[in-house]
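Reading a protein record of the kind used here takes only a little practice. The record below shows the convention in full.

——
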Amino acid sequence: MSLRTLTATLGSGYQTTLHAPTHTFTADEPTDVGGTDTAPSPYELLMGSLAACTTITLRMYAQRKQWPLTEVEVRVSLTAEPTPVMVREITVGGELDAIQRARLLEIADACPVSKMLERGVTMESRLT
């Protein structure tokens, strides 16, 4: 994977504008922790990354195999205490047999974001 860079700029309160190379979007915190709930929280963005990567990976794989996958819905739940656990529930549609469905579950676990979360990532912070 090539180098990816995203810049976050704090706005009013906890509202944060995120700048990717070709997209701009926002994050915020819920009102119960002092935010204005105008955008997904950082945790929701992380959960969304896993869900999006899973759906895209399954579509790519099914297209390559020419399987009749007609829909993919991924629901991600996060429990933060006592130990963080993400649960991914995947619903697929189409005339898929049991072997294809089982393979899609394996492929979901191989999506790049899933792999990164499972393996962990080295973090470095620099104050400039």
